[in-house]
Specification:
Helices cover 39% and strands 15% of the residues. It is an alpha/beta fold. The protein folds into two domains: 134 residues, Rossmann fold (3-Layer(aba) Sandwich), CATH 3.40.50; 170 residues, Putative Large Serine Recombinase, Chain B, Domain 2 (Hect, E3 ligase catalytic domain fold). Strand 6 and strand 7 form a beta hairpin.
């Protein structure tokens, strides 16, 4: 019996931890005990359990394609919710396995066998429970984010110019590095903060352009906090800081976080953090951005000229449309 394992973690911090390795070890032990041939391990690293669409899980999709080619006889998972938390996705994917006579086994749910009528019933039940758990978790997360926003705390990534009062320990747990914690849980970055203030000052003066500001930032050695995975020079996906572009500088100048505002669900709420820009300077910059946006037909919201690659090509450094 040729067996493969599908491993997935629900937290990005677990990718380099023990979770995936532990799941793989248990898979090999199961194969040894049952006399199966362990031929492959599919590792969906860094994919949240909330990412359920098959199209957004490339390793999961590859497994199903390999199953249709009869490359293995059985799939092993650690728990059923590592396979899917959405009932539709679970039943659709398990139906594909069944169509090609591929079995399905869970290490921690030993009675789960999709090849029998009882196994199908158990699978549907587990799928429903996993989906309910995921939905409930989403509700609680939404409540938590809503509460954070109304307390004036950031509910997303921390903008350039600030840093969190908390850091992750070796075990992935939150660890406070500021005693006491600053209001809002963030404080001004010693190097980036003054740079943001200078960016606004320069642009408000009307003597510089976005591209010139981007070049200035890059020359000073600063990089964006864009962590999207993009192809590198060799075509391999890599994540990490990127060079500043006009788009990333424009994003900074548009961000109301710098005037002590927290954006949540389209609403601006009072922030608890220290501002870097005065409201007057911020308004001048917004007016200047709006004025300059109409200088070129290229930047017009409905340009008369048509560009073949408009909206398609993106910057290799920040991922923004060119």
């Amino acid at each position: 019996m040729r067996a493969v394992a599908y491993l997935r973690v629900s937290n990005l911090s677990q990718v380099e931890g023990h979770s995936l390795d532990a799941q793989e070890r248990l898979f090999h032990e199961l194969c040894k005990n049952r006399g199966w041939e362990a031929i492959r391990v599919y590792r969906e690293e860094g994919r949240s359990a909330h990412v359920e669409a098959i199209a957004r899980r490339p390793v999961f999709r590859q497994l199903l394609e390999d199953a249709s080619k009869h490359e293995f006889d059985i799939v092993v998972v650690h728990t059923f919710d590592r396979w899917a938390r959405n009932l539709r996705v679970a039943m659709e994917s398990l139906s594909i396995l069944g169509k090609h006579d591929v079995g399905f086994v869970s290490i921690t749910e030993p009675n789960l066998d999709y090849s029998t009528p009882m196994g199908k019933f158990v699978t549907r039940t587990l799928g429903s429970l996993a989906e309910l758990s995921s939905d409930n978790l989403g509700i609680h997360v939404s409540k938590g984010l809503d509460q954070r926003a109304h307390e004036g705390r950031h509910a997303g990534g921390i903008p350039f110019g600030y840093e969190s009062c908390w850091t992750a320990s070796e075990k992935g747990e939150g660890k406070r590095r500021c005693e006491p914690e600053h209001p809002g849980g963030v404080h001004v970055h010693l190097e980036e903060g003054p740079v943001v203030t200078e960016l606004f000052r320069r642009y408000a003066s009307g003597t510089t352009t976005l591209s010139q500001l981007a070049a200035w930032l890059n020359e000073q050695g600063f990089r964006t906090r864009n962590m999207h995975r993009l192809p590198d020079a060799d075509g391999r996906l890599a994540s990490g800081p990127r060079l500043f572009t006009t788009a990333s500088v424009r994003g900074i100048l548009h961000n109301p976080f710098y005037v002590r505002k927290v954006s949540y669900k389209g609403e601006l709420l009072p922030g608890a953090h220290e501002p870097l820009i005065s409201p007057d300077v911020f308004e001048v910059v917004q007016a200047t951005l709006q004025k300059n946006s109409g200088r070129s037909e290229t930047l017009h919201p409905r340009p008369e000229r048509e560009y073949l690659l408009g909206g398609i090509i993106r910057c290799a450094y920040c991922g923004m449309p060119c």
